[in-house]
């Protein structure tokens, strides 16, 4: 029987300060920098869940809602939403946290598919996900649809 883990066991929250070297020519956080931070966060979530090395298989729904600027605090919250046999989906929500009121404003949402690897860098089974809350159940169902779309795109060569 495969191991099981709760969503909360692998959730991460990562905080970055936007600095001048993170900015694009328009003075906003460079999208590639944010993608690097997201990939790192997704890897941490997946490693916590699988307790093994992981690799990024795909990125879905990388949606930029709003920019982030020099000196702002960026908060990335990642959690497992779905597991298959050797892969898992990680949802990443990114916020800008305002210092004056502590409020967080969404700037990005992304879904990463990660694959667990054994000591020979071959895919290995991942622990099952214990889905408890209504929001976790809804996320699981939405993740199944995203997985179906990914498989369809793969079959069609996209």
TrEMBL record:
Gene3D superfamilies noted in UniProt: Hotdog Thioesterase
Domain HotDog ACOT-type, chain residue ranges per copy: 8-120
SUPFAM superfamilies from the UniProt entry: Thioesterase/thiol ester dehydrase-isomerase (SSF54637)
Any one GO molecular-function label of the UniProt entry: long-chain fatty acyl-CoA hydrolase activity
Tree of life domain: Bacteria
A Pfam match: 4HBT
Example of a GO cellular component annotation carried by this entry: cytoplasm
Record carries keyword Hydrolase: yes
Protein's name in the database: Acyl-CoA thioesterase
Protein source organism: Mediterraneibacter catenae
């Amino acid at each position: 029987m495969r191991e099981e883990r709760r969503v909360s066991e692998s959730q991460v929250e990562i905080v970055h300060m936007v600095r001048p070297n993170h900015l694009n020519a328009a003075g906003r956080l460079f999208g590639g920098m944010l993608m690097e931070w997201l990939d790192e966060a997704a890897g941490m979530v997946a490693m916590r869940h699988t307790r093994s090395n992981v690799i990024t298989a795909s990125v879905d729904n990388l949606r930029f809602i709003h920019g982030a600027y020099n000196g702002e605090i960026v908060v990335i919250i990642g959690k497992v939403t779905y597991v298959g046999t050797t892969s898992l989906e990680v949802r990443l929500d990114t916020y800008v946290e305002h210092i004056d009121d502590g409020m967080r404003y969404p700037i990005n949402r992304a879904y990463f598919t990660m694959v667990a690897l054994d000591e020979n860098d071959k895919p290995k089974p991942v622990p099952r996900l214990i889905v408890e809350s209504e929001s976790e159940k809804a996320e699981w169902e939405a993740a199944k649809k995203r997985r179906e779309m990914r498989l369809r795109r793969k079959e069609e060569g996209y």
